[in-house]
Amino acid sequence: MTASAPPLVVAVDGPAAAGKGTLARRLAAALGLPYLDTGLLYRATGRRVLDGAADPRDPAAAEAAARALTPADLARTDLRGPEADLAASAVAAIPAVRAALLDWQRAFGRRHGAVLDGRDIGTVVFPEAPVKLFVTASAGERARRRFLELQARGAAADPAQVLAELLARDEQDSRRAVAPLVPAADAAVLDTTELDAEAAFAAAMALVRERLGDTLPP
Questions:
Q1: Beta bridge partners of 13
Q2: Residue 82: which CATH number?
Q3: Is 215 annotated to bind ligand?
Q4: Annotation-wise, does 18 bind a ligand?
Q5: What are the pLDDT digits (tens) for 8-55?
Q6: Which residues form the Cytidylate kinase domain (predicted)?
Q7: Structural domain includes residue 217
Q8: Does residue 16 have a known ligand-binding role?
C-alpha cells in the first residue's frame, strides 16, 4: 500500500504591505486550498491585551490573551491600523505567545492543506512546506500602498508617519530573538515593487509550478 501524500501547504512570508495577503488569498483560490492569515492571530492577541489596558510587551498578559482567543476574535473589525500593527508585533516577539499559537496554525494546515501567510511560516510553522514564497517590496512602495489603504478606509494618515511606522515594524520584526522575519533558506523571493496584483499573482503561480512540477493540483 502506498502512503498518500500529505496535504499541500504553501508558505507565504514577508513584511507589512508587500502584498502577501492579497497574493496568498488568490493562490489559495487557484489551488483549491483553505487560506489563513496568521497575522490575524497575533493582531487579535494584541487587541485583547489592549482591551485589558495591559502592555502588549507584558509576557503574562500576552500569553493569557493568546490562550483565550476565539474564532470571534479573528472577525473583529479593529485588527488593522498603527496601534494594532505595533501591538501585534510586540506580542509576536514573546515566546510563550508563539508557542500558544503554533499548534493552532499547524493543525489548520495539516487538516486539509492550506496557503498560510505570515512572517515565520516557512521558517518555523511549516519548515517542511514544499512551496515557500518570501514576498517583499521596497519600503517606499510598501508605505505608499499602506497610505492608500488607510485613505480608502477613510482613516487620517500622514505619508511620513506611515513610512516611519512601517520601518519601526520592520525593525521590530527582524530583530526579535524568536522567529525573526527572514526568508527561509529554500524560499523563492518575489519582489513586488514594480508589480501590480495581476503580475504578482502570475509570477507566484510560475514559482509554484516550478516547485511542484507534476504534483501541482489540477
A1: 118, 134
A2: 3.40.50.300
A3: no
A4: yes
A5: 999 999 998 999 999 999 999 999 999 999 989 999 999 999 999 999
A6: 10-208
A7: no
A8: yes
